Amino acid sequence: MKIKNNNRKYINFIVVFFSSLIILQLLTHIPILINAFIYITTQITGFFVKLIYNDISINEFHIISKRGIDMEIIYECTGIYGIIVYFSASISAFWVDKFDKIKGIIIGIIAIFIANIIRLVSLYIISQEYPPAFEYLHTYFWQLFLIIVIVALYYLFFLKVLISSPKKNKL
Asked: Is 59:22 a contact under the CB 8 Å cutoff?
């Protein structure tokens, strides 16, 4: 009986996780949400880039320098996929208290967004100072970095919840 109950928990986790992934993917592909998220990401990234390079302009989804660099922020550059995966995994954690779950989701989403802004700002700096490294860092390094950030955040979320109340949060 105990084995069946544990299997049910794992199956519930998987079903809710993948259902949440699909639903969030559909919701975040609504054009007004896409454009709003890209715009916010571009404005925040542009603000920090402007602190370093004062010769840039921000035009809708572009950060443009007078040196000829035009960095376009697209949907995939916003960190939305990482946020969706983290959110879905956190929602799927049935054993977690609702307050802890909400707190973990909020902190995780903010941390992923900040990590992505750091990624974008650094990519802009690299494109200005050493353009040959841009493609490698954009395609490989920063993608891996964001995956590690998401996994680490979820692990810390999981660990914090289990440590905070081990009897209540047994798998």
From this structure: no
Q: How many domains does the chain have?
A: 1
pLDDT in tens, 40-77: 999 999 999 999 988 899 988 999 988 888 899 999 98
In a domain, 77, yes or no: yes
Q: Is there a contact between 163 and 95 (Cβ–Cβ < 8 Å)?
A: no
Name the residue type at position 155: Y
- The candidate with the shortest Cα–Cα distance to 23, out of 31, 15, 11, is 15
Model confidence pTM above 0.90: no
Q: How far apart are CA 171 and CA 165, in angstroms?
A: 12
Residue 121 is assigned to a structural domain of this protein? yes
- In DSSP notation, 79-148 reads THHHHHHHHHHHHH-TTS-HHHHHHHHHHHHHHHHHHHHHHHHHHHHHHHH-GGGHHHIIIIIHHHHHHH
Q: Is residue 26 part of a domain?
A: yes
Contact 169, 162 (CB under 8 A): yes
Q: What angle do CA 85, 86, 89 make, to 5 degrees?
A: 85
| Distance, CA of 99 to CA of 93 (rounded, Å) | 12
